[in-house]
Amino acid sequence: MTGILKQPGAFAITPHKVSLCILLKIYAPPAQISVPFPFSSVSQHNRLGLFLLALTKSCDDILEPKLDELINQLRLVSQNWEASWLIDQLISRLSSLSSPDDLFNFFTDIRGILGGPDTGAIEDDQVILDANSNLGLFLRRCVLAFNLLPFEGVCHLLTNLGIYCKEEFSSCPPYEETSLDGSSSNLETYSEYENMDLENFVYEKVSEEIEARKEASERVPFHLHTPNALLSLVDDINVAADSASKQTDKVRVASPYEDPPSNMIQDIDSSGAVFLRSNWQVQGYLQEQADTIEKNGSAISLNGFEIILRQLQKLAPELHRVHFLSYLNGLSHDDYSAALENLHCYFDYSAGNEGFDFIPPAGGNSFGRYEIALLCLGMMHFHFGHPKLALEVLTEAVRVSQQHSNDTCLAYTLAAISNLLFENGISSTAGILGSSYSPFTSMGISLSVQQQLFVLLRGSLKRAENLKLKRLLASNHLAMAKFDLTHVQRPLLSFGPKSSLKLSTCPVNVCKELRLSSHLISDFSSESSAMTIDGAFSTTWLRNLQKPRGSLILCQENGSGNSSNVSQFCAQPTSIPGSVLQVLGSSYILRATAWELYGSTPMARINALVHTTCFADASSSSDAALAYVKLIQHLAVFKGYKEAFSALKIAEDKFLSVSKSQILLLKLQLLHEHALHRGHLKLAQKLCDELGVLASPVTGVDMELKTEASLRHARTLLAAKQFREAASVAHSLFCMCYKYNLQVENASVLLLLAEIHKKSGNAVLGLPYALASLSFCISFNLDLLKASATLTLAELWLSLGSSHATRALNLVHGAFPIILGHGGLELRSRAYIVEAKCYLCDTNFNVFEDSNLVIDSLRQASQELQLLEFHELAAEAFYLMAMIYDKLGQLEEREEAASSFQEHILALNNPQDPNDPLVSIY
Amino acid sequence: MSSKESCRTELRIAIRQLTDRCLYSASKWAAEQLVGIEQDPAKFTPSNTRFQRGSSSIRRKYRTHEITATPTTGVSYIATPVMEEDELVDADFYLLAKSYFDCREYKRAAHVLRDQIGRKSVFLRSYALYMAGEKRKEEEMIELDGPLGKSDAMNQELVSIERELSTLRKNGTVDPFCLYLYGLVLKQKGNENLARTVLVESVNSYPWNWNAWTELQSLCTTVDILNSLNLSSHWMKDFFLASTYQELRMHNESLTKYEYLLGTFGFSNYIQAQIAKAQYSLREFDQVEAIFEELLRTDPYRVEDMDMYSNVLYAKECFSALSYLAHRVFMTDKYRPESCCIIGNYYSLKGQHEKSVVYFRRALKLNKNYLSAWTLMGHEFVEMKNTPAAVDAYRRAVDIDPCDYRAWYGLGQAYEMMGMPFYALHYFKKSVFLQPNDSRLWIAMAQCYETDQLRMLDEAIKCYRRASNCNDREAIALHQLAKLHSELGRPEEAAFYYRKDLERMESEEREGPNMVEALLYLAKYYKSQKRFEEAEVYCTRLLDYTGPVSLKYLTTISI
After folding, report:
1. I need a labelling partner for B333 at 20 to 30 A (CA). Which of A242, A898, B90, B141 fits?
2. Is the per-residue pLDDT at A39 higher than 80?
3. What are the Anaphase-promoting complex subunit domain coordinates in residue numbering (chain A) (predicted)?
């Protein structure tokens, strides 16, 4: 940060400093008794002293408070009449400085209030400034700076004093310039509002502002490009009586640029009123903003922040960091060209020497550290979904950092590359790992990709360990855990593993990596805070200074105050840095994911809960949203859709601002499931298409989303009984997953294929698929999916004839422990029904003796299915029940079951139920 | 075009009026054009035409085509009535004020005219105030060189001038000169649209004020803006268009305009310099050199535009001519940014890069926004292998003018030097986007793609193809194309390009290793195609060159 520091001699005397000197003179008038005139008590006097101390601390300004701001602060500090006396004195003395000679005299006078070197000789109750105290030092610096001024300088000071005083009297709006730039963005905003009720708009704006004041974290607009109908789908499910609030919701949705610039400027102004404008403080402010963007990108409005940045740049053209912030801003708002331009601009100016908390290599080289630029550029391309470009750039970053022997950067780059490879389907990595020439052949599978990824991960892990980059190490461990989670130790060589015992994932490894990752964090509590920025710290310091006096400025505290708490928390030197907390938080998310895959839902739920309760403040908003998603999914599976949707509504309110929203994805998933269960196939198809559109069109990007979309597509087709189409979709999905090494997904695709064959009545064809899926599940330790596959297998056997009933029953019973322990409503009821069917098919089974056995499980199943509104299976359960009652001769129960059966069948066949809220939307 | 004589009378009056209003640079310009009008040889004795041009043999050599007197294409120029001077009631005060102004005592001049209401007095008062503000601003900029590089020095008089002039304009009692000043003020205050309208009004009612035209030109940043201007036709408009086309990098259009203007103003130094500028942009260095030699002969103390001449001399590596030029401008006026730039160029050519950086720095001290000095300084830093400093210098140039393709190119080059070819590509792309007809840029980009680190040969081929299409002077592109194609195993394309390269070398009578390589490849190629006759032809040609290879090939083919 060398470029931004002021020169040591550049302590310029300004009108603001002159007023400080005047106040100091009032504070310590020469030759006075202990409590000088206007003050009634020592504490009053001390209060002014503290205030002055704060002011002098923040005197390294690039933008100083205006006179009226100073006066306002004075009013806050002291009692009524004292304040007005102080202010009168200040203004009259200021305005009496009308010629250069007045200034000369003033500064000669002021020397008198300083104690001489022989401070011991002074009487006790005389107020005098110690020349070595903070205030004394400030005064001496002022005097020195004045004496160093050439005559031109004195003239300037005089002119500036005139302006300074005049501004107070005319009190013009402080941020005049911003309206220049604001006009264009305002236009943009208004054009969006054109077709809207103006009153509504105004109300909305006001309420928005109030909201903004109340809770700092919620003040934000958001970017969601979804059709309104879809967004309000859930609103309408638990039909809301207050249509007014819904209306405003929609208004909010329609205006991505909502946050008008003025709002934003008020925002900075309110924090700016605490006169935090020193160099360091601006740095601190930028750092804080960077953190916010990182945590929750769309929390900051694109234009509003851009205006502030431009203003900052005007004030401090050499503060290149502003460009970086601009880049981040562009990045978080998906403005590709702006981000690119600003990134290049930043690194051209700063040569990578500014602002990164990397450990600088010994013996600073003069060549700049452009490898960091490459690293950032690579990450940017990654963010925008250009994996090929990103890989090229990162390869170059590897080369350049090797060339400059910047190991730290190399470690980060390797981590970034492995992350890239992990997220995207890229085949050839030859360029990185040695041989220089690698034309990018078509995106295809090569088994070595995984191996290379593994090698890369290992390498970057080792490197991070050697360089003691703890944060990187922690996140590398996490990446390793992720890798272990979904990849078997040896690559699958053929279709399905041959000796399943050897080829399997190692949950132990995952667990180990996760533990290692979080262990590292504990080291941070002992480590000194290299990460905290001085500016942020002094910001907090000043805030704390003001707090006991209960100033109006800090109304943020009244609100939820999460963000401000965090920043204060972070600024304390002993605390754990926010980014570390974030890594820790994501380790919990990963745990939840792992347990989800391995099939222990309670564990998954617990980990997600831990994340939401402990790391809500520190984690990035996307992580937090993910935790919520997991919890809501859990709810949907175990408690039915009603509960899930009401929870979703809460989550939506909380994460309005998340742009590429996981919440939106979740909503689509839930709605799709719901529609499938209720038999709204058209709606299901529509939702499924919506889901597919969310994915990027680039090959190899957003693989998870694409897989999910086509999986759901196949299921919808299956539900519509279009078996051939469903099978072909599933087949092509299988091929894609195979190509990109998504083996875990393949297990479920195989299961789906088995399901399709089962439904189409081709049990013999279905069997191999079910078995393959089963073996996949075993090798990947996917216990819950394995149970589900076993169930399908049992059904397949059963449909081959009653002779296989015992075998099927054994299978079902074998799977029961895990299904009852961890399975959701659907799985459980399916298991019950299959079990009942097995019994009924079994020739040895006597209905009259063991009817309770069957009836109980069927009743259980039907209850759970009703919760899910799963008409098809529910009808089946009721049908079976009715048959049994019929056999038993219990006519009343039989009628009851039969009518329930009819109800479900009708609902299934006639989805256009007018009472159905879902239908009314489409 | 209106007749030479009418131009002459118009200009004569205009010069007097402009001088009267202390618009000296405009009157200087007008006077230059006045003298530039071709004299009627019948009326004047040879002694009068002594300083006029056209006699130089060099010039004649490069004059590619005689000006075919463009037929007047029915454009009827509106004869703007020459402005009537209003009766000066307070002529004495005006005279005093003007003398103060001439002595650069602006505030005093404004004060003398404080209560005058004549149009001329109003203008001179406002103009004097403006000049006083500008002078103060310049001083402040040096006094207040803030620690963070902030310099927000403002012309303090702008507000009051704007207020006065806008009321005048509303009342309709404003004259074209006040309109010009009003436009100037508006432009400085950032109100560009209104400034444009006001300036158009000004030039429409009084077209001879070149200052107004230049201000207007600086506000025309795109062709669309230029086309949307509602300008009445006058021969001054042609000057304006020519110069604006040049700024918009439409060099050929600009050249035609200037050639056309030469018909009337045959001896205008200004036009010659502008033509040189356009030719320089088209990289016709020989012509530029000829023009400048001529200019220096007729106008030996000229400093304007001489930095471009030094660039040409630099490119042609004329050591002594450059040193001569540097000496001359140094003696004329050493504290002009152009002079410093020329000296910097000289040191650069001598390989004394540290010294040349000193002079470029001085040029930048004199004019912070001196674009070419930033770029040239970047080049020096590149030579000194101080790439971060070079990047910084180039970046500043780019920030001053985002259309400066040289600086973008320099940035790319600097990054390529640091072994970051992929990163450099971004900058090369920018530069070719701005100057798509420059083969050097395309070649640089292609070489970037070709580096060992990237080896994106297909992209490189695309770039070379573009380069060969836009008049690749050094003939690198064809050779590289042939080589790359043969490397990628496409013998037919390779042979095609080798043949083209060969033809080109023949036509330019160049020889060298490239020739041997081409012949060799073609011989091999035809042999493999079983077209032995052609192969033999190439082989026999190979015999002209020494080396064992050719003989061996000839023997293999004849077998």
Report:
1. B141
2. no
3. 323-421
- CB–CB of A370 and B149 under 8 A? no
Select from A264, A275, A272, A270 the least CA-distant residue to A306.
A264
Annotate B33-60 with b (16+ C-beta within 10 A) or e (fewer): bbebbbeeeeeeeeeeeeebbeeeeebe
How far apart are alpha carbons B130 and A158 in whole angstroms? Answer: 23
Residues contacting residue B431 through CB under 8 Å, at least 6 positions apart? B405, B406, B408, B409, B412, B441
Residue B126 pLDDT level (bands cut at 50, 70, 90): very high
CB nearest to B423's CB, from A316, A318, A396:
A396
pTM passes above 0.95: no
Across the interface, do A180 and B420 touch by the CB < 8 Å criterion? Answer: no
CB B48 within 8 A of CB B74: no
Q: Is B531 on the interface with A (CB under 8 A)?
A: no
Name which of A321, A336, A396, A401 to mutate to probe chain B: the one with the most chain B Cβ atoms within 10 A of its Cβ. Answer: A396
Give chain A positions within 8 Å (CB) of B427.
344
What pLDDT is stored for residue B198 in this prediction?
93
Question: Residue A483: which residues within 8 A CB-CB, separation 6 or more?
Answer: A422, A453, A454, A457
Chain segment A112-155, per-residue pLDDT in tens: 777 665 545 455 555 667 777 888 888 888 888 888 888 878 88
Which of A386, A487, A388, A442 minimizes the C-alpha distance to A742? A487
Rounded to an integer, what distance in angstroms lies between the CA atom of residue B369 and that of residue B376? Answer: 13
Q: What is the ipTM, given to two decimal places?
A: 0.73
pLDDT of residue B547: 60
Give the three-state DSSP class for A375: helix
B405 touches chain A (CB under 8 A): no
Would you list the domain boundaries of chain A? 15-116+126-167
Q: Write phi, then psi, for A660 (nearest 5 degrees).
A: -80, 75
Q: Which spans in B46-118 are helix H?
A: 57-62, 91-102, 106-112
Residue A153 at interface with chain B, using a CB cutoff of 8 Å: yes
State how far the Cα of B289 lies from the Cα of B296, in Å rounded to an integer. Answer: 10
Q: How confident is the model at residue B243 (pLDDT cuts 50, 70, 90)?
A: very high
Judge contact between A212 and A219, C-beta under 8 A: yes
Please name the residue of chain A whose CA is at the shortest distance from the CA of residue B421.
A396
Give CA–CA dist B428/B444, Å, rounded: 8
Structure tokens at A42: 């020592």
Q: Residue A61: phi, psi to the nearest 5? A: -85, 155
Q: Is some CB atom of chain A closer than 8 A to the CB atom of B41?
A: no
Alpha helical stretches, state H, A760-870: 763-780, 783-799, 805-822, 825-841, 847-868
* Window 234-253 of B, Cβ < 8 Å to A: none
By three-state DSSP, how is residue A344 classified?
helix
Longest dimension (CA), chain A: 118
Average pLDDT of the segment spanning A573-580: 58
What per-residue confidence (pLDDT) applies to B182? 94
Q: pLDDT digits over A773-817, tens only? A: 988 888 888 888 899 999 999 989 888 887 888 888 889 888 888
Under the banding of pLDDT at 50, 70 and 90, the label for residue A36 is low
Torsion on CA atoms A579, A585, A586, A592, rounded to nearest 10: 180
Please report the number of interchain residue pairs, chain A to chain B, with beta-carbon separation below 8 angstroms: 84
Provide the Cα torsion B235, B238, B243, B249; round to 10°: 180
- Assess A36–B contact: CB distance below 8 Å, yes or no: no
Distance, in angstroms, between A163 CA and closest chain B CA? 12
> Does the CA dihedral A18-A24-A26-A32 come out positive or negative?
negative
**Residue B386: closest CA among chain A residues belongs to which residue?**
A367
Subunit contact B150:A317, Cβ cutoff 8 A: yes
Q: Name the strand (E) or helix (H) holding B147.
A: none
